[in-house]
Amino acid sequence: MQHCEHSEVSRHKCLIYDGDPSEQLPVVVPLLMDGLQENWRCLYLGSPDAVQMVGAALASKGVDTTRETDRAALVLSSDRSHLIDGKFEPNAMVDGLCASIDQAVKDGFQGLCATGDMRWELGADENFDRLLEYEARLEKVFREKPLWGICQYHRNMVPAQAIRDALVSHQSAYIGDRLNRDNLFYVPPELLLEGSDRVAGSSHAEWMYSQILRVLDAERTRDDVLRDLERRVSERTAELAVANRHLQSFSYSVSHDLRAPLHAILGFGAALAEHAGDRLGAQGKGYLDEMIDSARRMGELIEGMLALGRVVETDMRRIPVDLTALAHEVARELRAVEPGRSVDLVVHAGLSAVGDPILLRAALSNLLGNAWKFTAHRAGARIEVGRQRHDNGTTAFFVGDNGAGFDMRYADKLFGAFQRLHGQDEFPGTGVGLATVDRIISRHGGRIWAESRLGEGATFFFTIPE
After folding, report:
1. Are residues 16 and 102 located together in one domain of the fold?
2. Nearest Cα to 401, choosing from 450, 442, 437?
3. Whether residues 189 and 246 fall in one domain
């Protein structure tokens, strides 16, 4: 029974079931089959009807019961010769069981695997009065000899006190086909025998039984809920993956199909301006310039859409990232593009996070680029990158500026793709930058939000969980 020894707490277990005797089969049949497979002599003791039921169940699982019985590996018995005038003596019963174990070993078996219905084994109700004494002696045998067993109790067919004694004297208990491997109610039976305050009556047994059932039902319900949740998450994840692939394919297809005619518009527009611009007149030239600007803006939108798609598609890696160094790199790039700008750009020291360095650089580039853009009309422009602890205990990174700001009534539109709160003529852009940042932070398991006053600047906060 090596397989069972690795997975079970004790070789001495009990089974408690409520309804039809067939409820014992999901526990008893695997026990006997394992015993036969591991070359243990297997004994089932019960009423003639129960013996026939167990034999048929074994046969239905492919066990050759005739062969196993002939070689004395399987013993299906209704014998009650261990009872003397309907009575039993624990010593005599244990001595007889020890002899059976020794004989099984002598016959070449690993030991004895025994199970049976305690109502049949012990007989009359008064015999259960000495159950604890029997269990105490039996537990000693389990510790000293190669014995594996399950004592079976039908709740409606044995005295309630016997149920209680079974629960407190077995380390492992089956309730139906569910095994409570760590019986919190277990008390070594020899200790029970030493006490003088044994609880009598059925109330304690009923309470103990209901408590074990409550715990097991809660565990089963939890497991069922978790399995259902995992199934739904798996199905939804698969659906989203398919939808995402379709969306990416559509985006690339659309962008590719749009690029060719767009390049044609820009190319012919530029040629028209060069070769026929003088003949178009002021109004015509204005229309041409507007067309070329719109085509360029459309190209920027396409590039933004592709960039947004790449953020979702990119494989992530998580390593320590020096955000202070990244912010300084981005700042140098911004100053190189507009060397004439005077901006007080402050980056706090020691800013670090665990995440994807490429994605986090893209996030900082967009946030600092926005701050740089929206302070363009501000004398004494100031941008700050740092970390701040909020009243609720959350620590967040931030990029703040004293630029144009925005009306907080429209804050819910900030992170939507192609959403803009300022006119193109005032502050040009595609409305993709903040949507990109939002997706990057989300992929890191964090969140981003903003605080602002119109005309007084804006601060963007974001978290990156460790």
Report:
1. yes
2. 450
3. no
pLDDT digits over 215-264, tens only? Answer: 666 666 777 778 888 888 888 878 777 766 666 666 666 666 666 777 78
- Evaluate whether residue 285 is within a structural domain: yes
Cα–Cα distance measured from residue 59 to residue 65, given in angstroms and rounded to the nearest whole number = 6
Same domain as 114, residue 37: yes
Rounded CA gap, 103 and 109, in Å? 9
Write down the pLDDT at residue 247: 62
**Mean pLDDT along residues 94-123:** 92
In a domain, 85, yes or no: yes
Residue 215, classed as helix, strand or coil, is helix
Residue 25 gets the label, from left (phi > 0), alpha (psi -120 to 50) or beta, of: alpha
Give me the sheet containing 41-45, strands edge to edge. 74-77, 41-45, 112-117, 147-154, 12-17, 172-175, 178-180
Range of the domain at 235: 216-313
3-state secondary structure 147-170: EEEEEEEECCCCCHHHHHHHHHHC
d(CA 272, CA 249): 35
- Tokens, residue 386: 């740092």
R_g of the chain, CA atoms, integer Å: 40
* Tens-digit pLDDT profile for residues 409-455: 767 777 765 555 544 455 555 567 788 888 889 888 899 998 888 88
Residues 226 and 308 in one domain: yes
Give the model confidence (pLDDT) of 182-223 as tens digits. Answer: 676 677 776 666 543 444 444 554 555 566 666 666 666 777
The one-letter amino acid at 166: A
* Burial class of residue 258, CB neighbours in 10 A (0-12, 13-18, 19+): middle
Q: Is residue 211 part of a domain?
A: no
Helix 433-443 and helix 357-374, axial crossing angle in degrees, nearest 10: 150
Q: Which residue has the tokens 């070359």?
A: 39
Return the sign of the alpha-carbon dihedral for residues 335, 339, 340, 346: positive
Please, which residues bridge with residue 152 across strands?
15, 117
Whether 337 and 415 map to the same domain: the answer is yes
User: What is the tally of structural domains in the chain?
Assistant: 3
How far, in Å, CA of 244 to CA of 253, rounded? Answer: 14
